[in-house]
Amino acid sequence: MARSQSTVSTSSLVAGPGRGMPIAAGLPTTGLISDLFADSRNTELSHRDALEQAKAEHDRVRQRALRVFEMHELELERQRIVKEQEKEQERLKRETQLQAEKQRLEALKAARAPTPPPLPKPKPQPKSEPKPESKEAPAAAPASPPSTVPVAPAEAKKKVVPVPVKAAETKKPDAVKPDTGFSLGSLGSSLGNATTKPAASVTPTAAAITPTPSKTASTTLFGKPLAAATATTPTSSMFGAPVTPGASLFGTKPATTPAPAPTSDAVIKADPSIFPYNDKYADIHKKLKQLRKAVEAAAAQPGSPLKGKVGDMRREIRKSMGQLTEGAGTNKIQLAKIRQVLKSSIDGTYPSPAVNVKDYVTQVPTASEGDAHTGDQLPSLYLYLLNIFSKAVINQFINECGANPKAADPIGVIFSQIFSDKDYYWRGRTLVDIMLAKLCVVCPVLFGIRGNERVPAGRVAIGWRRDEGGFISEQAHWDRMSGLGAGFGAITLRDFSKTSRTTPAPPTMYWTSMAALVNTPAAQVSGTQLVVLKAIIDGHTTRFLQFYGNAGLAALRVALVEFPKTVAKSPGQEALAVVADRLLKDEGLKLV
Fold first, then answer.
1. Where are the alpha helices (DSSP H) in 113-161?
2. What is the C-alpha to C-alpha distance for residues 164 and 150, in angstroms, rounded to an integer?
3. For residues 125 and 173, what is the distance between their CA atoms, to the nearest angstrom?
4. Minimal CA–CA distance to 95: which of 471, 533, 403, 405?
5. What is the CATH number assigned to the segment(s) 278-586?
6. Where is this region: Disordered (predicted)?
7. Which residues, 6 or more positions from 536, have their beta carbon under 8 angstroms from its beta carbon?
8. What DSSP state is assigned to residue 558?
9. Are residues 462 and 455 in contact, defined by beta-carbon separation less than 8 angstroms?
10. Residue 292: which residues within 8 A CB-CB, separation 6 or more?
11. Terminus of the chain with fewer CB atoms < 10 Å: N or C?
């Protein structure tokens, strides 16, 4: 009985697929179970077939997985492109709005220019014309102020007496005419402590910038000459406010002087207690120009060891600076080439005449034991190449960073690597004053200097570049200032906490410049200052907050939220206010 059950079980195991009947002995079978009981199950051919089937299945699964992975990557790339498109659309929308506002502003300026407000005020003159007909008119003539048109004594007894009276009446409305539309008193009070400075300390600055200043003009606040008593037409104040002739900022009547030069009201010098080296920077810049001409002239002389070498070194530095790319460790070759050029100029490989280093620094340090280059002089070729390097850094800021602020970071890294290297120090101190002197000339608003963009002298004072026949366009100027502002943030907000070197441009310089821009009175704010303030903040907030924490957050709130509210509406003001919204959207930094 048990045997029959075993037979049945075995037959059921070898049953064909889909059937309940046992397989007849001797019939061929193709099922998996039948193959297991076949005599050829352990042959080489059977194992090879099984391996091929397994490999085919593995390839099929692998190909399917690769297709799924490729589809996933394509989807991620599509999502990234969509996000980039949205960002570009948002950027284009904002730029379009800014351009529209700028065009509207230009239209308003053009419409306002032909009709200045002070011109309609002399209309009340006809009311006083009947006075010469009265009998008391001849007696009133001597009491009037002296006329600009002399009258002969014989003619004074005739009926031509109305002529001096008319001249006096023509001058009288200008002398007593009030001008309360701008409130000059509020301007004087808004200047704060700066209004207490003596005028003598500011007049030389205006004279240095203005080509032909008037030597007889009376001195007043910030180099602005007051209107003389003989002037018959109203003048303009420093930033567009009308000023009545004969009136000063403090309500006192100045001495009678000739009309001042029209370009002497354009510049406000920086506070020397905050920016003590501005004058020295200007002097260093002049000395660098003289050094450049002298070195290039010496290299051009026949038989000079520098002949052909100076040009090659200069081109090598400029080429290396132009090849910088973003990314950590991507500019090692360029940095090595620049270092090699500087080293060959200071180690005697290419000898050059020595010059006094004191002319190229703001402070003369005392030599200490262990310092490199402790003498009073250094090779002129070395200082010349540092000047070329600094100029290349600034040119890269201008050309690359206006449209792409992120490009300033690798330039800032190279700058810090060179000027923090003790091999290039003089008496243990960096020669970064060469770079700062050039930066002070091309972007003076970073160093507390203000100017009126409406007059040529003011434009020169704030670094507005001249072009053939005048100045470059407003957009070109703003692009230059944006690049320089982004570069300034890149060189002053570098973290040296993990290295033994000392930063050549400490973060305190950044704070001081930002404070000088934000603390500008509303009546003196220029479009250049707004553009530079936006450039030094945008893209540098993370590093700024790493250095200053809560104090930096408060400073950003003042610069991006409170300060724009006090400034007149303009494209620069709107662009500055947009930065706060972008910080909230992109970085989650809430300033309001």
1. 137-140
2. 8
3. 8
4. 403
5. 1.25.40.510
6. 109-158
7. 446, 485, 486, 488, 489, 510, 513, 514
8. I
9. no
10. 384, 387
11. N
The pair of three-digit structure tokens given for residue 378, joined into one six-digit string: 């250094």
Distance CA 19, CA 582 (A): 74
Using an 8 Å Cβ cutoff, are 463 and 481 in contact? yes
Phi, psi angle pair for 361, to nearest 5°: -135, 155
Token match 């400073």: residue?
555
Residue with tokens 């409170």: 562
Q: Decide: 439 and 488 in contact? Cβ < 8 Å.
A: yes
pTM: 0.57
> Inter-axis angle of helices 527-537 and 474-492, to 10 degrees?
40
What distance in Å separates the CA atoms of residue 405 and residue 144, rounded to the nearest whole number? 64
User: What is the 3-state secondary structure of 239-282?
Assistant: CCCEECCCCCCCCCCCCCCCCCCCCCCCEECCCCCCCCCHHHHH
**Nearest-angstrom CA–CA distance, 434 and 386:** 7
**In terms of DSSP bridges, do strands 377-379 and 242-243 run parallel, antiparallel, or are they unpaired?**
unpaired
End-to-end CA distance of the chain: 95
> Does an H or E element contain 236, and which?
strand 235-236
Whether residue 173 contacts residue 122, with contact meaning beta carbons closer than 8 Å, is answered with yes
How does strand 466-467 pair with strand 470-471?
A: antiparallel
| pLDDT tens-digit profile, the chain (592 residues) | 444 444 444 444 444 444 444 444 444 445 566 666 667 778 888 888 889 999 999 999 999 999 999 999 999 999 999 999 999 999 999 988 888 888 888 787 776 544 455 555 555 555 444 444 444 444 443 443 333 333 333 333 333 334 333 333 333 333 333 333 323 233 233 323 333 333 333 333 333 333 333 333 333 322 333 333 333 333 333 333 333 333 332 233 333 333 333 334 578 999 999 999 999 999 999 999 999 999 999 999 988 889 889 999 999 999 999 999 988 888 999 999 999 999 999 998 999 999 999 999 999 998 888 788 888 999 999 999 999 999 999 999 999 998 899 999 999 999 999 999 999 999 999 999 999 999 999 999 999 999 999 999 999 999 999 988 789 999 999 999 999 999 999 999 999 998 999 999 999 999 999 999 999 999 999 999 999 999 999 999 999 999 999 999 999 999 999 999 999 899 889 999 899 999 988 888 888 7
Please report, as a single letter, which amino acid is at residue 535.
Answer: A
For 370, the token pair is 């262990």
Q: In angstroms, rounded to a whole number, what is the distance separating the alpha carbons of residues 577 and 42?
A: 82
- CA-to-CA distance for 182 and 200, rounded, in angstroms? 26
Q: Residue 407 is encoded by which pair of tokens?
A: 């490009």
